[in-house]
Design brief:
single chain; alpha+beta; BirA Bifunctional Protein, domain 2; 7-stranded mixed beta sheet; 3-stranded antiparallel beta sheet; 10 strands; 39% helix; binds adenosine-5'-[phenylalaninyl-phosphate]; ligase; tRNA binding; ATP-binding
Length: 373
């Protein structure tokens, strides 16, 4: 700032000359008019309205003028600054309006565009069916338990009383991930059934144990109308004091009623599984013909092939050897187990003729099952 000017003539202070002030005002107005967008306007504002702008510097010179000149110079600079502020505000409003109009066009949503060209997905009927079965047992106080699909041979076979050379191992043709090592330690397999989860559940918990174990299992079966190499099973295990085959039968009857309706009979046929003793195959009365098709060619039943009964799965009382392998006292506790294939159950529950339809991912198969979540 200049030193106080006692013998004052404002014309002598260069920055305060009227034509200088006018030039500053014109330049500011021209810069605002030339600003093409709000960013450029912000820069023009800093240059012409900021602390170091020509008009701000001129304003500071006023303080150095003698009192009689201050009013006139102040009025001149103030009017110029007022005009600059006004021009800035007007240009800002103009550019903001342009920006808003542009955003409205660029971000417009065409509400008339079709929104439903991609069909909404739905969960696979195998999954929803599995969960329905789980729900039945959870409602009875069972816990859902899961185990690994890549399983130690020990859990899949040895702990379940399959002897190393027992022909029962060949009952379930196995995908081996790795064989036994040189020390004869357990190999690794893709589990062939959900029964290893029985052993894991007993090792993880103190009795009583009530678990339902759904999961994917693998066998070297060819894919055909009634087999797939990857399928689903649900396993049931109950360990408590005093459990008998009657408890097993009653429990399965409750599941059958929940899934297929009231009044269907079940029956046990002798069978063999190394991990249950005694073992049985469990059949339910055909829920479609209720036996009326048996010996009645005039009324054939596709669901049970006119046999009157549908095979549900394998079951039995847990073999005491399995209880011992899982650290449970067979003198005190007994238990039952039941395992069945979900694909086969879904087949007869919904009259699916070919199991391959379940794995090929064609929505024409899944669509009739609806959007159940
Ligand atoms: C077992 O896997 C025993 N773990 C079941 C069990 C559990 C018995 C507890 C006793 C106590 P199985 O090999 O029969 O049993 O198989 C059970 C079910 O799996 C069969 O009834 C069938 O529904 C289904 N299943 C077997 N192989 C296939 C396959 N390749 N494709 C589709 N489903 C299959």
């Amino acid at each position: 700032m200049s030193a106080p000017n006692k013998s004052y003539d404002p014309v002598e202070v260069e920055a305060l000359k009227p034509e200088e002030i006018e030039r500053m005002r014109e330049e500011a107005l021209a810069a605002f008019a030339a600003a093409a967008d709000l960013e450029a306007l912000r820069e023009a504002k800093a240059a012409h309205m900021g602390d170091r702008s020509p008009l701000a510097l001129a304003n500071r010179e006023i303080g150095a003028l003698p009192p009689q000149a201050k009013a006139e110079a102040g009025k001149r600079v103030g009017m110029a600054r007022g005009a600059v502020n006004k021009a800035f505000a007007a240009r800002q409003a103009e550019l903001e309006a342009e920006r808003d109009a542009r955003v409205l066009v660029e971000e417009a949503v065409d509400v008339t565009l079709p929104h439903d060209r991609v069909a909404a997905g739905a969960r696979h009927p195998l999954v929803t069916f599995c969960e329905r079965v789980e729900d039945i047992f959870v409602a009875m106080g069972y816990e859902v338990a899961e185990g690994p699909e890549v399983e130690a041979e020990w859990f899949n076979f040895d702990a379940l009383n399959f002897d190393p050379d027992h022909p029962a191992r060949a009952m379930q043709d196995t995908f081996f991930v790795s064989g036994k090592d040189a020390k004869g330690e357990s190999g690794v397999v893709l589990r062939t059934h959900t029964s290893p989860v029985q052993v894991r559940s007993m090792l993880d918990r103190e009795p009583p144990v009530y678990v339902v174990c759904p999961g994917r299992v693998y066998r070297t079966d060819e894919l055909d109308a009634t087999h797939t190499p990857v399928f689903h099973q649900v396993e049931l295990l109950a360990i408590d004091e005093g459990l008998t085959m009657a408890d097993l039968k009653g429990t399965i009857e409750h599941m059958v009623t929940s899934l297929f309706g009231e009044g269907l009979r079940t029956r046990l046929r002798p069978a063999y599984f190394p991990f249950t003793e005694p073992s049985a195959e469990l059949d339910m009365e055909c829920y479609v013909c209720r036996g009326a098709s048996v010996g009645n060619p005039g009324r054939p039943c596709r669901t049970c092939s006119s046999e009157g009964w549908i095979e549900l799965g394998g079951c039995g009382m847990v073999n005491p050897r399995v209880l011992v392998a899982a650290g449970i006292d067979p003198e005190k506790y007994s238990g039952f187990a039941f395992g069945f294939g979900i694909e086969r159950m879904l087949m007869f529950r919904h009259n699916v003729e070919d199991m391959r339809d379940m794995v090929e991912g064609d929505v024409r198969f899944t669509r009739p099952f609806g959007m159940e979540i």
